[in-house]
Amino acid sequence: MSHLPKSIVKYFQELIFESRCPAYFLVKDGYLVSWGGQLSLYGFHHLERGEVVEKKILFLAGLLPFQNLPIILPCIKMESGVAAEVHIFAAAEGDWILLLDARRYEHQYSILQQQGNDLSLIRQHHSRLLEQSLHDRIAANLSQELVAALEKGDRRDVTILLAKICSLNSSIEDYPPAEAIATVNSYISAIVQPLLDRGGIVSKSFGDAVTSLFGILPVTGSPAVRATEAAIRVVETVRGMSQVRQVDKCIAFSVGISIVSGSLIVGIAGSQNQKTLIAVGDRMAIVEQMGFQATPNAIAIDRNTYDRIGEMQIHFMRSHTIFKGIASEPIPIFTFLVA
């Protein structure tokens, strides 16, 4: 701090002593060397040189030997009930442990911790939904032969559904992180459940989009029909949820859906208890391209899907054409705006 004027250094010193009640320990090789400051505030009494530090300073259990110093623990509840900000740093004489009174910040840290806990619960809930779509259903519905084939990789004729939460990324950044994540989780959950109910497997969920495959699980009925039925249900569910959110003056979104049918290479990757379905091929590229053009409350399907949905064709109108690549054949797209 030699670059700071002495008056400023003195001010900082007085500020810390007056408002933060500093206390310290010096530790070397796990043993207490010296101590000082307002230790009684934090509940430390009758210390002896040479004591094993973990027996006296219980919050250090598991931290010794110290690695990757410095360590800062912003709000640790001491045995006395006082919250302390803990700084641990190394010096030539040993490792210093500095305690500063954190009571004035305790409520703020408590709120942040609760937000962290809430986000953890959200992630766990979302994880369980996704696990239901693959791990549990594989165990219940797929033969060992099919599982073995998928683990090696297999080419299958499937229907891919991509549900995109429209304008999410551009709209949600102005909101607090906890509210943003909770909102995304609500919409993802609303999207995923109808897909699972109609035999889809969620292969990818990230950010503003969910991708699901139909035609992997041995479910009765055309994959294209089931995917289209699921898409209608997703749009209706999300729209109903958004109407409620608007009444409550919460941020609300619409969903746009793209569906493509055809041949893909699919496989299962991951550990025994946490498997992920992967799918690659030009059909994936097409559905992702369609996803960029997703329209709120609309379902867009390619020609292959249109030809496979029978009486449901009555809902769809030829809307536009996309190209798979620079020199590829045009792909007609049919759209249904769900009323």
Automatic annotation (TrEMBL):
Superkingdom of this protein's organism: Bacteria
GO molecular-function terms, A-Z: adenylate cyclase activity
BP terms from Gene Ontology: cyclic nucleotide biosynthetic process; intracellular signal transduction
CDD domains: CHD
Alphabetized Pfam families for the sequence: Guanylate_cyc
InterPro entries assigned: A/G_cyclase (IPR001054), Nucleotide_cyclase (IPR029787)
Residue ranges of domain Guanylate cyclase in the record: 159-291
Stated name of the protein: Adenylate/guanylate cyclase domain-containing protein
